[in-house]
Specification:
- The protein has 1 helix and 11 strands; from the N terminus they run H-E-E-E-E-E-E-E-E-E-E-E.
- The strands form 3 sheets. Strands 1, 3, 4, 6, 8, 9 and 10 form a 7-stranded antiparallel sheet that branches. A two-stranded antiparallel sheet has the order 2-5. Strands 7-11 form a two-stranded antiparallel ribbon.
- A hairpin with a 5-residue loop joins strand 8 and strand 9.
- The chain is elongated.
- The mean pLDDT is 91.
Length: 165
């Protein structure tokens, strides 16, 4: 009897093992597309330049739009002279099927030689996202806030343009 039970157990084990050996398979696909790294270049001599302004007891603001030849909007401030320009960058080596997003800081502080400060905010860029071209000129504008009785001097500060794709 023990031999019979052993034989039955052996046949059941063999039957289970034969089913356990069944497999199925399918084929998948791995893909990749390589694009060249984009380049972002600051135009030589370019700057977001708000021009020459006259300080007074009220202060004010100047908005420079993000276009090639901007016309500033002055609020509560007098313009003395000076060339007003938006900043200029070139985004190149682009893949036409890829979308490139351009981001700018919320605000920066610019300072004169005495460390007096003003704020540039509300940065804008001429185009984002950039899609379907191999290169694109980008212009950056913003808003300068001038304080009441702002100290005289030439103010300057740096900011970063970031491109994500």
């Amino acid at each position: 009897m023990k031999k019979l039970i052993g034989l039955i157990a052996l046949f059941m084990f063999a039957a289970v093992m034969s089913y356990a050996a069944e497999t199925v398979s399918a084929t998948g696909t791995a893909k990749a597309k390589i694009i060249q790294a984009a380049t972002l270049t600051h135009a030589t001599g370019a700057a977001l330049d708000f021009g020459v302004l006259v300080a007074d007891s009220d202060g004010g603001s100047v908005v420079v739009p993000a276009v090639a030849s901007p016309t500033p909007t002055d609020t509560g401030i007098k313009r003395a002279s000076g060339n007003v320009t938006s900043d200029h960058f070139t985004l190149a080596n682009l893949d036409t099927a890829t979308s490139y997003a351009v981001s700018l800081p919320d605000s920066i502080v610019i300072k004169n030689a005495n460390e007096d400060e003003m704020t540039v905010s509300s940065f804008t860029v001429s185009e984002t996202p950039v899609t379907g071209v191999t290169s694109k000129d980008l212009y950056v504008g913003g808003t300068l806030t001038i304080g009441a009785n702002q100290a005289s001097g030439s103010y300057q500060g740096d900011y970063t343009v970031t491109v994500t794709y």
